[in-house]
What does this fold into?
Amino acid sequence: MQNRETYEYAVIRLVPKVEREEFLNVGVILFSKRKKYLGIKYKVDEERIKAFAEDVDIDIVRKHLEAWEMVCQGTPQGGTIGQFELPSRFRWLVASRSTIIQSSRTHPGLCTDPEAVLQKLFARYVL
It folds into this structure.
């Protein structure tokens, strides 16, 4: 049996009107320091988003989520934050903010395969 290691995750939320604090889950971000893993999975379901908030600019939502993905991947397109070490990138992404894309508080767990856990969490909280 493989060793289980700690991970943290947060649910990514679309908050169309920040002042109302209503949200729609659109993704999950997962980090495991010992597994050297930082992953994100999201879905821009236009029909669902428009039913939730008809005046949301879907292209803006996509661009924000793509930026989160680039930071996770550590690509040059992720900017300065994308060049940080994995723990710092995760902490920056899940920090409390008042923007259209936010995250829940972080939650811990133990796993052997963080990618598999990310898929399960995505299915549970987004799909």
Summary: The radius of gyration is 15 Å. The first strand starts at residue 5 and ends at 14.
